[in-house]
């Protein structure tokens, strides 16, 4: 889909010209104006600061072979367990529209199946493909990912709606805020279970024709499924035979989760994400 033209002020155009001149020795065909503007926005239109950030990111990409990351795969195919669905593009702004239903995400399964490094790499692979808790281990990974995102994927998000998030998410997000830019924080909207409020907010940005009926839109699967399972992977339990090794620290987390399940405390936790083009 054709993206809207850049609408820049004179000083912003000057900053873009300076930035392009400063980094002309490392520019690639994919580094168009829309891509470069993201780095300027992340550094408040300071061309020198944007250049420093951009060059550091290029070094990071080269050191980790990010340009070829789509060729890398985990030992086991975990695609059926990633909750994710690309729904299309918003009609007016051409932003990609993605739904990530986290209710059935097997967090413990992923932590048992992947090393910390591979887990971060798997998330980076997902970010690259479409360019994105209270326990110390989980929070550590979240901080790593927050730093990676801010340093290498600036100003990518248009808006994130966190729907029906458990109270613990707010606690974890408050910790992560110090690693996120003001632009990223401003893109995140945490909403309660009041459907009238969050459905209205989503429909202000998203055409109901590409929003599943389950979330207040008009879209259904060919079999009438309002959750659109043909387009959205809802995750599921990762087989135990995929686990790397027995991890005692994970056992304690698993016990807590099982306790919650036995008490029949159910939380639907969905993230609706639209990535920004500029």
From TrEMBL:
<dbReference type="Pfam" id="PF03765">
    <property type="entry name" value="CRAL_TRIO_N"/>
</dbReference>
<feature type="domain" description="CRAL-TRIO">
    <location>
        <begin position="74"/>
        <end position="223"/>
    </location>
</feature>
<dbReference type="GO" id="GO:0005737">
    <property type="term" value="C:cytoplasm"/>
</dbReference>
<dbReference type="Pfam" id="PF00650">
    <property type="entry name" value="CRAL_TRIO"/>
</dbReference>
<dbReference type="InterPro" id="IPR001251">
    <property type="entry name" value="CRAL-TRIO_dom"/>
</dbReference>
<dbReference type="InterPro" id="IPR036865">
    <property type="entry name" value="CRAL-TRIO_dom_sf"/>
</dbReference>
<dbReference type="InterPro" id="IPR011074">
    <property type="entry name" value="CRAL/TRIO_N_dom"/>
</dbReference>
<dbReference type="InterPro" id="IPR036273">
    <property type="entry name" value="CRAL/TRIO_N_dom_sf"/>
</dbReference>
<protein>
    <submittedName>
        <fullName>CSON013273 protein</fullName>
    </submittedName>
</protein>
<dbReference type="InterPro" id="IPR051064">
    <property type="entry name" value="SEC14/CRAL-TRIO_domain"/>
</dbReference>
């Amino acid at each position: 889909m054709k993206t809207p033209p850049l609408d820049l002020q004179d000083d912003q155009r000057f900053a873009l010209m300076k930035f392009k001149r400063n980094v002309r020795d490392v520019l690639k065909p994919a580094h168009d104006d829309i891509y470069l503007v993201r780095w300027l926005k992340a550094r408040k239109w300071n061309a020198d600061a944007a250049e420093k950030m951009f060059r550091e990111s290029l070094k990071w990409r080269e050191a980790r072979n990010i340009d070829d990351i789509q060729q890398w795969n985990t030992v086991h195919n975990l695609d059926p367990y990633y909750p994710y669905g690309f729904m299309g593009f918003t009609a007016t702004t051409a932003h990609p529209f993605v739904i990530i239903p986290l209710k059935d995400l097997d967090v413990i399964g992923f932590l048992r199946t992947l090393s910390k490094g591979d887990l971060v790499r798997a998330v980076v692979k997902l970010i690259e493909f479409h360019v994105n808790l209270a326990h110390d281990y989980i929070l550590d990974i979240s901080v790593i990912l927050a730093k990676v995102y801010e340093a290498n994927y600036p100003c990518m998000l248009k808006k994130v709606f966190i729907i029906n998030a458990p109270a613990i998410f707010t606690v974890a997000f408050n910790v992560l805020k110090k690693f996120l830019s003001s632009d990223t924080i401003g893109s995140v909207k945490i909403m309660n279970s009041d459907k009238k409020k969050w459905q209205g907010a989503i429909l202000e940005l998203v055409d109901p024709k590409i929003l599943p009926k389950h979330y207040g839109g008009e879209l259904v699967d060919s079999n009438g499924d309002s959750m659109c399972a043909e387009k959205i992977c809802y995750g599921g339990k990762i087989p135990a035979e995929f686990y790397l090794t027995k991890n005692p620290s994970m056992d304690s987390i698993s016990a807590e989760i099982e306790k919650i399940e036995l008490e029949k405390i159910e939380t639907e936790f969905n993230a609706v994400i639209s990535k920004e083009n500029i």
